Amino acid sequence: MEQLRADSFKSSRLEVFGRTLVIAPHPDDETLGAGGTIARLARAGHEVTVAVVTTGRPPEFSASHVARVRSEAEQAHAILGVKETLWLDLPAAHLVETPRHALNAVLREAVVRTEPTTVLVPFVGDVHIDHQLIFQSVMVAARPHQAAYPTMVLAYETLSETNWNAPYLTPGFHPNVFVDITDTLDLKLQAIAAYGSQLRASPHERSIEALRALATLRGATVHRPAAEAFVLVRSVVLP
């Protein structure tokens, strides 16, 4: 009986995610920040969609590089069990020049199309301006005054972005939601390994070793072997 109750509790906790939309400013952000959670949700039968907001464009990014990264993302998402990948195709590293209403509209369209219960977003305090702008626009796109809206919004951390903000000057990442990814950490690491163009050698943050270490640290925080951490932005308990 005790085991049955424990298993039921674990299942009910994951159930709160429901259909999930993961917003990735750039390909690989979704895997770095929430790959283990994505894999765990997919294993449990939840629909997970990843919306990649930006695409590299010349002259900063060659056509061959863009094609390679997209192929890597498709491989990574297949490993994690992502149901669908949406390519929103806004210009990478140039969102600051994109009209805010255009970014809001593109993200709103993704929310309407997928009808998520939960949205995972980049953290507003990340050093990359694309992450900051996307967080703000997702909050517009997911406003709760609409007929249907995500009832839970969680912000994830992205190594080499979240950890390089300015202490005490920009928002700090202080997680209060932890997802046990003990059983899906290896899938996360396999998925990030598919991003060969983005992966770096240790001790770089975007290395297999750094990601494993972060998962171990976040897990230890809640006495689990491995976890991913999030900041709860909003949770609405409906009737």
Looking at the overall shape, the CATH architecture is: 3-Layer(aba) Sandwich
Q: N-to-C terminal Cα separation, in Å?
A: 29 Å
Q: Taking all residues together, what is the mean pLDDT?
A: 93
CATH class, named Alpha Beta
Task: Kindly report the spatial arrangement of strands forming the biggest sheet.
Answer: 3-2-1-4-5-7-6
Tally of individual helices = 7
Enumerate the spans where pLDDT stays under 50 for 5 or more consecutive residues.
Answer: 1-12
Radius of gyration: 17 Å
CATH topology: Rossmann fold
> How many structural domains are formed by the residues?
1
Structural class: alpha/beta
The percent of residues in helical segments reads 40-55%
Q: Would you kindly provide a written description of the structure presented here, covering whatever features stand out?
A:
It is a single chain. 41% of the residues lie in helices and 18% in strands. It has helices spanning 2-15, 29-43, 63-80, 100-114, 129-141, 185-194, 208-221; strands at residues 20-24, 48-55, 84-91, 118-122, 152-156, 177-180, 227-235. The chain is globular, with a radius of gyration of 17 Å. Strand 1 (20-24), helix 2 (29-43) and strand 2 form a beta-alpha-beta unit.
